[in-house]
Every structure is written in C-alpha cells, then in structure tokens.
Amino acid sequence: MIKFQAHHMNVTAADLAGNGKIGRYIFLTGSDHRAQVISTHFSNVKTKSHPRQHNFYSGTLSTKHGDIDVASISSGMGGPSADIIITELILLGAKRILRIGTAGSLQVQQVRIGDIVIANAAIRDDKATWDYIYPEFPAVASLEYVISALRAADELHKNPQVHCGIVESKSTLYGREMGYSFLPENKNYNISIGKAGVLATEMECAQLFILAQIHNGRQKALASPRAQAIQVGAILSIISDNHPFTAKDSVVAAAVESSVELGLETVRQVSYLDKLKRTLIG
Q1: Domain 13-281 is of which CATH architecture?
Q2: Element (H, E) at 72
Q3: pLDDT value of position 244
Q4: pLDDT at residue 159, rounded to an integer
Q5: Cis ω on the peptide bond leading into residue 160 (within 30° of 0)?
Q6: Which residues have CB under 8 Å from 48's CB, separation 6+?
Q7: How far apart are CA 111 and CA 273, in angstroms?
C-alpha cells in the first residue's frame, strides 16, 4: 500500500502520531496567525513551515490527567481550501480536529459581537461539499465535541456569552453576505435562515463536518465500539453582527482570545472522554 504524502503542508503521518491510537488533537484555524497563537499554549513546540503558510505547530498540552499531544494548523479561508487541508490531515491519520474560527451573527439581537457560538451542525451553503455527497446529507458536529465544549464553557465560568446551535457555511463572503452579488435572493436567503434560528454565518464548518462523516463511512469506523472514528467540532467567535467588519477591535480580540481558551479546555475535555473510553472498552 502506498503511503499518502501531503502536498500542501509539510506534515507526515509520523507528525500526527500520539495519544496512543488516537493521534494528536488538532486545532484548525482560518489564519496562520491564530494557529501560531494557539501553539503558545503548548509545551515543547516544534514548527514545520510551508510556503503556502499552512504551517504546522506541534507540542503537548497540560491537562488534569497528564499531558496530551496536540497540534495547530491553518486551513485557509473557505471550503475549497479547507477541503485540501482537512483531507490531507485525515488521509495522514488525523482523528480529532477542532475548528477555532470566526463568524458573523444572523441573530443580531441575541448573538452579538464578542459572543461565542458552538456549532452543532452547519447548512451546506459552501457548495464544495456537494462534490462529496448529496446536498440533503446533513453536516453535523461530533457529539463528543459539542458536549465537551458545553462542559468547558460551564467550567470556565467566563464571559462572553456562549451559544450552541446551527451555523451557515457559505461559499462567498462578498457575494452571499456583503451584497456585492447581482442576485437578489442572497438577501432573502440570509433573512430566511435567520428566521429559522440559524445562529451565525462562516465558511468552513460544513466542509469539516462532512469530510469527517464521509471518511468515517469509507473506513467503516462507526461499525464497532472499538473503532477510532474521526471526531470534529467547531467553536466560533462572533466578529460582526449588523455592523460588518466592526471597528470594535478590542472586543473582537477579546472574543478570539476567549474562543481559544474555550477550545483548549474543550480538547482537554475530549481527551478525558477518550481516556474513559479506553478504560471501559480497551
């Protein structure tokens, strides 16, 4: 069998190894800067650079139950870029991925700039996932990550406000959201999904959720309780509401910082669930 070789990042299967058969817990961001910031919370950090700026930062993260192996990397912006990086990570053996990203509010009275959204599912408006499975197939986060993020939020007991629900993953920022399209249905689309209760709009969650689901299907990883299924989740800081690209830089910076803190604690919680599973099932 030919071993897979990544073409868009300087990462090998050995780089993703750790935590027994689970592999490293990976933090996925839209920007390389945020991936680097997350890595400042690691110990024993090693950096593997790449010309496309999908730099890979690996190390260990302390938990109440011992250190765990972790890494952070940028997926770039949008479904097509995320598709490449997430797929290469999965084909190299990644089984635990948490997206820490940004989003715009679709519930401007309740979900405000500075808040955090835990995504439990995503509308597949990204279009890129349509090349993998029918549009009716749902893009759903792993229950383990949703529960762990909610537990982490409760344990941290900190502002900002944390919400949990469905988000939209769109294919274009300026066309779908910012009104630069000639198509009037874009405005009606956002109004309609907002009325249906969708919390926020972003660009990568659907790709992450769908790729995890279809690769679990390909590997038949859900057929056995002993199987190491791919698990994924997403935590998003709200950086715009009814004022796109807000000038409230300090509020945005604080929200991003809070989302990173929540993400770190979420991974600690997920690692504990994995430890419990190993103890109970073997």
Answers
A1: 3-Layer(aba) Sandwich (3.40)
A2: strand 68-74
A3: 62
A4: 65
A5: yes
A6: 9, 10, 11, 15, 55, 56, 58
A7: 29
